[in-house]
Each structure stands twice: as structure tokens, then as C-alpha cells.
Amino acid sequence: MYRNLKCPNCNKQILSKNIHLDKNLAKCKDCDVLIELQEENNSVLHQRKEEIFVIPRGIEVLKMMTELNIDIKWRHSTNFFMMFFVIFWNMIILPFAIYAILAGEIIFLLGLSIHLLVGIGLIFWALAALFNTTYIVVDEKLISVQHRPFKLFYKEYNLDVNEIDQLYVKRYVNGRTNGNPNYAFALMINMKNKEEFQLLKGINKAPQAIFIEQQIEKFIGVKDKPMAGEF
Q1: What confidence category does residue 37 fall into, taking pLDDT thresholds of 50, 70 and 90?
Q2: Any idea where the domains of the chain sit in the sequence?
Q3: 59-113 residue pLDDT tens
Q4: E strands, the chain, where?
């Protein structure tokens, strides 16, 4: 029973001495995650998530009787390496573009067009990362997600609360630094009709995403349960 047990968080092997059948728990020595066990199919049921009571930095919460407001200020989750890369990229490309415009070198400018588009996209990302706030409003009918002041390329939602089956947090690779993966977290919503939405993405720290998940679950009365691919 529980042979070849692996951690659902880091996928490392869990030693038998760290499996406590009397408590239905196992502990990963590599990442210190507690795992709840269940004897159905001799498998791990899910990673036990502790409730987060302290509001993470960059998040503001206003809870009323009929409405929950969560504001996420993205400047507190800014990837400073990416900011440096935005500046570095545009400092190289823009002087060549200005030279091509002043010299009337249209062919040379066309050759730079893809790099210029990348630079403009990076500038837009940097402005959004520094100044954008995501507004989540939950009431008895809808979950509404809006992004301000920059909303281009960002998905906005109005989802029926009564059709929500589950919320969960998913980890994904959001680029690489020196060959090492940079992880980010997304807040996912599964609807009762099996449709899935990525409500938020680009969250740098797991506690921020889990806190938002827990606040919405408690407000709309959804009981947390394990999901495939959940962090």
C-alpha cells in the first residue's frame, strides 16, 4: 500500500518513514508539503491546503453581506528581471529604428519590424505590470473580473456563481532564467458543464493565488475538493 508514493507538488519520491498511516498523512522531505492519504485506489487524495488568514501583500479585500471585493495591484508581483529585459531590449532596438526613420531607410525599418513589435509588446506589459489593478467582484449572482487601466489582451469575465463547480490553483512555467524555469500561478474555475476558465494568471507566489481562491470559495459556499493538476 502506498508504494512508489510521489509528492504532487515536486514529484519527488516520499520515503516510507515519512508516511504516517495512523494520521492518514505523508510529508515530503524536499518541499515540506503535507499530503492527505486515502485508501481508494491506493493513491494520494490531495495536498492538504492550510487556510491563509493574513492578506498577502498587494491584495486588498472588502467583504460585505452581499458582496466581496478583491483588488490585486500587480506592481507588488512585478518580475524585476523582466523589467530589466524590457529596458535592455528597447535600448538596443529603438536607436536603430530612429536612425532608419531619419535616414529614410524603409527596407531597414521593415527588417526591424518584428523586433519593434516585440519591444512595443514588452513596453505594454511593463506598463500593465506597474500600473494595472485587477478588480474581482463577487455577489450572489456573478463573479466579475476587470482589469484597469490597461485591459487590452487581458480577459475579463462575468460568470454565473450558481454554475461554478470548483476553484483551484495551477502552477505553470512562465519563462526561464539561465535555463531554470520561472513558475507562476493561475486561478482556475471549473463550471458544472465542465467548461474551464483561467480567471487569473501571472501570480508570482502561491499564497496569493490560494488566498484569493479561499476567499471566493467561502463567500459563494463552494467546498474545496482536489482537482487534476492542482498545485
Answers
A1: low
A2: 1-48, 59-72+134-220, 80-128
A3: 999 999 999 999 999 887 777 778 889 999 999 999 988 888 888 888 888 888 8
A4: 19-20, 25-27, 34-38, 43-47, 59-63, 67-73, 133-139, 142-148, 157-160, 164-177, 180-191, 196-203
Q: What 3-state class would DSSP assign to 123? A: helix
Helix 80-103 crosses helix 113-131 at what angle (to 10 degrees)? 140
Check if the beta carbon of residue 187 is closer than 8 Å to that of residue 199: yes
Report the CATH fold assignment for 59-72+134-220.
Answer: PH-domain like (2.30.29)
Condensed to tens digits (0 to 9), the pLDDT of residues 205-223 reads 888 999 999 999 999 999 8
Whether residue 149 has a cis bond before it, omega within 30° of 0: yes
Contacts of 167 (CB under 8 A, 6+ apart): 187, 188, 189, 190, 199, 213, 216, 217, 222, 224
